[in-house]
Amino acid sequence: MTKGVKICLAAASVIFVSALAAMLWLRLPSDSTWVEITQDGKVLYTIDLASYDDEQTQTIRIDSPDGGYNIIEIGEGNTIRISEADCPDKTCVKTGALSDGVPIVCLPHRLIIKFTDEPENGG
To answer: CB under 8 Å to 80, separation ≥6 — which residues?
Structure first.
């Protein structure tokens, strides 16, 4: 085995192990109950899911600049999800409730729902 092949194998191994570690880290459950909803990089809402009881639900409609929309449902066991969207593939709806630190993303409407740290001003 030549020196170049060894270097390529070592580099590929480092990339593989780094990608595996990143995937495992992203799957860790979040300790936070705070959620941030952003569109085009602008924070629209910061919500504490712990402030909702099991009986309380809320829906938020977010319109996108291109004329589309997402309906976000909050509640039912301190969860948040996109319950309806008019995007073509509806991946954001199929994602289900936010969990494991992996954000819900609607690419066509440039919308992201993710766990965040508690705001310093307390919300």
So the answer is: 35, 47, 49, 72, 73, 74, 97, 98, 104, 113
